[in-house]
Amino acid sequence: MTTAAPRHRRPGRVRWWTYLLLAAATVACLFPLYWMFIVATTDTATATRMPPEVVPGDNFLHLVGLVLETVPFLQALLNSLAVATAIGVGQAVLCALAGFAFAKLSFPGRNTLFLLVVLTMTVPTQLSVIPQYMIMSQLGWVDTLQALIVPGLASAFGIFWMRQHITATISDELVQAATIDGANTWQVFWRIAFPIVRPAAFVLGLFGFVTAWNDFLWPFIVLKSPERYTAQIAIKALQNSYDVDLGLAMSGSFLATVPLAVLFVIVGRRMVAGILEGAFKG
């Protein structure tokens, strides 16, 4: 008498409830954006009605027109795009360069300096506002976009992340071989190291872009002129001191969210690939 071999599930098989959980998580993540659009198509009275409305209204274009009349919103979007792009590219390159120096170059005080960089992550952002504003004032950069761009071109987290990634992915032998072949330090970084860590640098730059796009505190302090507002400050300008028109505010918020949504649709797959590559190699 023979006994049948036990049946095993195929490795990697995805169960039906996994798709159900993913679908539920997707709906939960997209619902706030949908609700924002609903409020952006109605007025404050409709938005606060109970039970709440679940069908968009027909007031969206009118509210968008009011947004554009109240503040220079298109200019604010362009300002946010310029600032966020500069910060994203700057963090991708400069943090990778600093991470390469800490990971592969030998110089006096390297470990101490890296420890100081890491310790700056424990300092609350609010504590740096006053000295940072004083520096911008001395440079004559108050109410300019470079006051937003320059302080954000590098970050302690980005340097730490790129240093760890470069340590895990680039061997000392590769750097030594390039040096023996006559490459200088910049050539080793730009032609050898940076192409290898480009996916991680891309993800870091994307995080920097999103952080700069959503930043409110520092632009609110340093910007004065409406033509230099970023998107978040323009949304604040849509509200007066006594009440908030929810439809108007949500219309501006929806317009400011659409570019980020488009960005993630375009580069989402590449971002996930960069994160996974760093996770497997790290």
UniProtKB/TrEMBL annotation:
Keyword field: Cell membrane, Membrane, Transmembrane, Transmembrane helix, Transport
Cross-referenced PROSITE patterns: ABC_TM1, PROKAR_LIPOPROTEIN
Biological classification of the source: Bacteria, Bacillati, Actinomycetota, Actinomycetes, Pseudonocardiales
Protein's UniProt name: Sugar ABC transporter permease
Family to which this protein belongs: Belongs to the binding-protein-dependent transport system permease family.
Matching SUPFAM superfamilies: MetI-like
Membrane topology value: Multi-pass membrane protein
Subcellular location, principal: membrane
Residue ranges constituting the ABC transmembrane type-1 domain according to the UniProt record: 77-267
Keyword Membrane belongs to the record: yes
